[in-house]
Amino acid sequence: MSPFGPIDAVLFDLDGTLIDSAPDLGAAVDRMRTDRGLDSLPLSHYRHMAGAGARGMLGLAFDMKPDHPDFPAMREEFFVNYENCMTERTHAFDGVAELIAQLDARGLPWGVVTNKAERFSLPLTRAIPLFATARTVVCGDTTPHSKPHPEPLFEAARRIGLAPERCLYVGDDERDIIAGRAAGMGTIAATYGYLGNKADPAAWGAHASIDTPLALLNWLN
Ligand SMILES: O=C(O)COP(=O)(O)O
Ligand SMILES: [Mg+2]
């Protein structure tokens, strides 16, 4: 039996759920190392923190915390580097294109709720053809709150014109599941994302988990 009620729309997290943006996030911060004469570090060094944005990337590249006095300037340099490369290596996870095609064929509206700022998420989703049929893209700064607060999820449901209870939220991080549950949505943890075997979706309280994008179809009727 389904752990949630009938679903009329699917909302997705972006990084680590629909797209693998880790190679470009890692390249943007690694460029800052080589610009300073430091060794380049492999993508595997950065990948597991790709969902944590500038804080995660600068922490791994320079062991720098957000309370460091240079953090704001370093973050802006990282942002500019990222803007310049963010569509170079970023791609949808295997199976995402087929999943979206299935949702579109079934007439199920879908959208994106990400913590990534509009400055990056809007151009990125416009550049990738997969997102042409997304009904909405709600970003970390679209509303006054970001996940784990439920407000961006409420905003996405409002834009699609459905009650939150009719929406499913799929994400790869605990904050996604906390936000989805607080919004009253069915929640699915994507374990193929960045946390990998460090993730414990059962402890997060997700209604279910999927280890491939296409496995989501098992939760839709
Ligand atoms: O860039 C971030 O902060 C994370 O983005 P996400 O919410 O799409 O995983
Ligand atoms: Mg994510």
Automatic annotation (TrEMBL):
Gene Ontology BP, a term: reductive pentose-phosphate cycle
A cellular-component GO term for this protein: cytosol
EC number, UniProt record: 3.1.3.18
Molecular-function GO term, any one: phosphoglycolate phosphatase activity
Pathway: Organic acid metabolism; glycolate biosynthesis; glycolate from 2-phosphoglycolate: step 1/1
Reactions catalysed: 2-phosphoglycolate + H2O = glycolate + phosphate
Keywords for the protein's UniProt record, in alphabetical order: Calvin cycle, Carbohydrate metabolism, Hydrolase, Magnesium, Metal-binding
Enzyme class: hydrolase
Keyword Hydrolase attached: yes
Superkingdom of the source species: Bacteria
One Pfam family from the record: HAD_2
Function: Specifically catalyzes the dephosphorylation of 2-phosphoglycolate. Is involved in the dissimilation of the intracellular 2-phosphoglycolate formed during the DNA repair of 3'-phosphoglycolate ends, a major class of DNA lesions induced by oxidative stress.
Subunit structure, as described in the record: Homotrimer.
The protein's name in its UniProt record: phosphoglycolate phosphatase
Annotated organism of origin: Rhodoferax koreensis
